[in-house]
Amino acid sequence: MIDRRRLLEGLGAAALTAAALVALASPESLGAERFSFIGRAEAQTVDMAQLMAPGALPDNVLGKADAPVTIVEYASMTCGHCAHFHETTYPVLKEKYIDTGKVKFILREFPLDIVAKAAFMLARCAGDGKYYPMTDTLFETQKNWAFTNNPAQALLAIAKQSGMTEQQFNACLSDQALADNINKIAERGAKDFGIDSTPTFFINGKKVSGAMSPEELDKELAPLLAQ
């Protein structure tokens, strides 16, 4: 078990690094990712059977199991571009494609720092059917918790709003097995699928790096959904 004091100290230390990057995560600079290695990579395709093979933790799936298109997103909860995608393009994706049975969507954890990992842990601990409501909230409020001097306290407030008690919050963030398994998801993404930036998407196996606009999303999906 991780000592809560040590964990919160670790979160605070990670926040100092994140705080130094907050200016680059502002709306004015969303065209350039905070991390120097981020960029739209050359398109490549991965094997869908390998991509969808069970990992260290079960996937949280949105949409119909037999949807003709599967989108897997690797993201970090402290990534400015990931938040931008989920605020601007994801609502279009959900309404136009997921809710209509055309797309099955999976968000996978690729935390770039300990604060992002803690946020993903809370989403995993939120309870049945609450993973995406929690990640939606975390992306929407990212600047209120990811880049503060006390991210643990800010995350606790969000957790309480979702119905989690402080005891449950502490137990979740002390779950070493969960932390290790989230690391394994990220390590597999990097090793097996070449993830080196967030967000990175696989659309029926085709790799698309960088936050897509609604128009770019439509362009990627049109040929796959053509009758």
Short description:
50% of the residues lie in helices and 11% in strands. It has helices spanning 4-20, 48-51, 80-88, 90-98, 114-125, 131-140, 142-145, 151-161, 166-173, 176-193, 214-225, and strands spanning 61-62, 69-75, 103-109, 200-203, 206-209.
Strand content: 5-15%
Radius of gyration: 17 Å
Distance between the termini: 53 Å
Order of helical and strand elements = HHEEHHEHHHHHHEEH
Report on this model:
The structure is a single chain. This protein has eleven helices and five strands; from the N terminus they run ααββααβααααααββα. It has 227 residues and is of the alpha+beta class. Strand 4 and strand 5 (206-209) form a beta hairpin. Helix 5 (114-125) runs parallel beside helix 8 and helix 5 crosses helix 9 (166-173). Residues 1-43 have low confidence and may be disordered.
Protein topology:
Blueprint: H1 4-20, H2 48-51, E1 61-62, E2 69-75, H3 80-88, H4 90-98, E3 103-109, H5 114-125, H6 131-140, H7 142-145, H8 151-161, H9 166-173, H10 176-193, E4 200-203, E5 206-209, H11 214-225
Parallel strand pairs: 2-3
Antiparallel strand pairs: 1-3, 2-4, 4-5
Helix pairs in contact: 5-6, 5-8, 5-9, 5-10
